[in-house]
Structure prediction request, 499 residues.
Amino acid sequence: MYYIITLGIIALLWMLRNYWKWHKEVVQYIDKIQGPTAYPFIGSLHVFFGTTKYDIFKKIKDITEKYGPFFRTWSNNLAEIHIMQPEHIEIVLKSSKLITKGRGYDFILPWLGDGLLISNGPKWFQRRKLITPAFHFKILEHYMNVFSQKSRRLITVLEKEANNEVFDVYPYITHCALDIICETAMGVSANALENTENNQYVDSLYKTSELIINRLFTPWYHSNLYYLFPEGREFQRHLKILHGFTTKVIADRKKILQENPSNKISSSSNDVLINSKQKLSFLDLLLSANETVPDKDVREEVDTFMFEGHDTTTAAISWSLFLLGNHLDLQEKVYKELKDVLGDKKCPETISELNDLQYLECCIKEALRIYPSVPIIARKLTEEIVIDGYKIPKNVYCSVHIYKVHRNPKIYPNPMKFDPDRFLPENTTSRHPYAYIPFSAGPRNCIGQKFAIYEEKTVLAAILKTYKVIAIDSQDNVNELGELIMRPEEGVRIKLEKR
Ligand code: HEM
Prediction:
């Protein structure tokens, strides 16, 4: 016994020594980089004290403005570098080794688990390989049915608002996007558009995102003692609702598959027979690979795709409407293109039609530039790197400020101006490949980016073909909430006029 205790103490001292050595090295290198003053325990988090959920993103922007384009912060005793130049971003995102996610994702873990967004190493690699075929072009072609059916339903539901009164279109888009992800990737009906007044899953999702960001910037919430605080308990309450929803989605799909043993994808609106495993939609692929994907892992992936698959596109569609509603001349150009491509049709039905909507695509890309749905992503640097001549030791964290590279005036003159022509082919050729990264880039880029663009195009085309959209708020008075997803604080207040 004495022998074991002695060995234990030696091992502990050895670990402490290594940690201390590493920490000394980190301090030595990281503190050569400028950044806000750091104090013991709280690091530089004091700069966020007193900020509320409404101004946290503004604070991040102020700090970035003051110390950027390359600076460091400390959170407790953890160092983090912040990058926003295409050349710096390329070093991190291009690497096939730097794929481990940053510290903030630890706080998302209780919700999304070790799904594709957060996992790393062999688990991420195998899962990415397994799921990639579910977003193949052939599968997306089949999803067009759902995209247009739900878009048509949306314009019908919006009819009651086409009376020149101001309303917030954000909840309508949210419910439409939720229906779309459920009926495509999950193969079940959510019918969220049939009740746009309230949805427990959506309410809990917003609250959970807000609580996660608050935890990130509050040092005494970082350990698991968080769950003893009222805020931690509130977080757990919302998690129960979120997990309850996704558990039901899986149970519903299993039931449909049991009643339909020939491995068909035959959700209510997607009557397609696909027998090859290579061509199964997302959830069917996970369920049919039952031996290799345990139930817990299926839930994690469903939680991940349910969130990533609708909250991001909702924000992107809503910001596009906001910007086009502020630029009626450009909206007329979109409308003209819609009439040319669709004729009398209310909504696109094929990918070939979507491909012809080139100007609409420029508008979508430009909206994602100014207001990227995911404004910041982060990595843990599992290898030493060099940036601007500064050595960054292993295990330091790294935040990539997507919104900031998108708003760099040297790359995009007058960056807050909505100018879709920036994405005409002739204007993009000389741009640095890492100067436009709404879907991230490199090995951990967004698996759903084609899905997202097709969905966005279909929904926006349907709305703009039927209605003229007039925005109430302008870019100057809109407050960007930087939770996990960037959204406008007051939603998107618009008026609709029937075309
Ligand atoms: C406009 C819409 C979207 C935007 C702007 C967007 C953006 C992003 C970004 C920036 C990342 C990298 C995240 C990180 O490194 O932490 C990401 C990853 C991811 N996205 Fe998207 N996304 C969108 C839509 C979608 C959709 C529709 C789906 C699913 C149907 C999806 C599923 C995922 C998944 C699973 C990952 C993790 C991929 C991996 O690490 O292998 N996203 N997305």
Remarks:
- The radius of gyration is 24 Å.
- The CA atoms of residues 86 and 314 lie 27 Å apart.
- Residues 31-498 form a domain with the Cytochrome p450 fold (CATH 1.10.630.10).
- The pocket of protoporphyrin IX containing FE is lined by residues 101, 116-117, 128, 185, 304-305, 308-309, 312-313, 316, 373-374, 377, 438-440, 444, 446-448, 451-452 (CB under 6 Å).
